[in-house]
Design brief:
Elements: H1 3-7, E1 12-16, H2 24-33, E2 37-40, H3 45-54, E3 61-63, H4 79-85, E4 91-96, H5 104-121, E5 128-132, H6 137-144, E6 151-155, E7 171-175, H7 177-181, H8 183-191, E8 197-199, H9 212-223, H10 227-241
Parallel strand pairs: 1-2, 2-3, 4-5, 5-6, 6-7, 7-8
This protein binds zinc ion (ZN).
Length: about 250
């Protein structure tokens, strides 16, 4: 739709693995030209350092410091580097719990790592956390607790819709293309306050940042708004999440 030519600068992708695309530099240049903001999440502090270097010349691409134990062979070996780097950035992610595993020792280690990250992040008010919660929503929310002072972004949330009722106002959901189509995703979108919605692609594994327009179009019709109004609402939500003045 032609409308997106002027609205593309309102597209913000708060969860994308940009470094995992084929030819990430060329793709980043394309996104920068369209003024699409992308948070490029990482799964380890080493990957954060390399993303920071790869995208250093781009103002629309923001690397996040990640530590995602279920994706790593020896998760604790990343601890020192993660905490050495945590003061460099407000963007933290991808972090969180994945309970696809039944191994209780593995789940416990994931919780320990997540608790360390949340505790350290709670020392300042400005951290923005992008959190993986697959099959683990209750434990994830219990660890974060109701008084976390920064911003929580639940990425591709697929847990109980009821847990999304009356979420504290510093919590946001980053909604993607899969969530607008799935039955549970639609139930979640009924519960969540539109003021707490952000968008993501989870690219390249799910979608591409520019296709977030499809998500916004779907949210606009759900909320009975024009596409401009929905894009504007999500844009404002994003700046509130980031504690930016608009
Ligand atoms: Zn991800």
């Amino acid at each position: 739709m032609a409308i997106w030519q002027k609205l593309s600068e309102k597209i913000i992708d708060t969860h994308c693995h940009l470094q995992d695309f084929d030819n990430p530099l060329a793709y980043a240049a394309e996104l920068e030209q369209k003024k699409i903001h992308v948070h490029t999440v990482t799964i380890s502090p080493g990957q954060y350092l390399s993303s920071k270097d790869t995208f250093k010349d781009f103002s629309y691409i923001s690397p996040a410091l990640g530590w995602l134990p279920f994706m790593l062979k020896d998760p604790l070996s990343h601890k020192d580097l993660f905490f050495d780097l945590i003061d460099q950035t407000t963007l933290i992610g991808e972090i969180g719990l994945d309970y696809k595993t039944d191994d209780e020792a593995d789940r416990k280690l994931q919780r320990q790592i997540f608790e360390m990250i949340v505790d350290k992040s709670a020392e300042t008010k400005n951290k923005v956390l992008s959190i993986h919660t697959r099959c683990s929503a209750e434990d994830t929310l219990a660890i974060i607790g109701p008084t976390f002072p920064g911003t929580i972004i639940l990425h591709w949330y697929s847990g109980s819709p009821l847990l999304m009722k009356d979420l504290p106002e510093n919590y946001f959901l980053s909604v993607n293309n899969a969530m607008i189509k799935s039955r549970n995703g639609k139930e979640i979108l009924k519960e969540i306050n539109p003021q707490q919605v952000l968008t993501e692609s989870d690219g390249p594994y799910l979608d591409k940042p520019e296709n977030i327009k499809v998500v916004i179009e779907s949210l606009a019709s759900r909320w009975d708004m024009s596409i401009e109004e929905a894009a504007d609402l999500i844009y404002k939500n994003y700046h509130r999440a980031m504690k930016n003045e608009l």
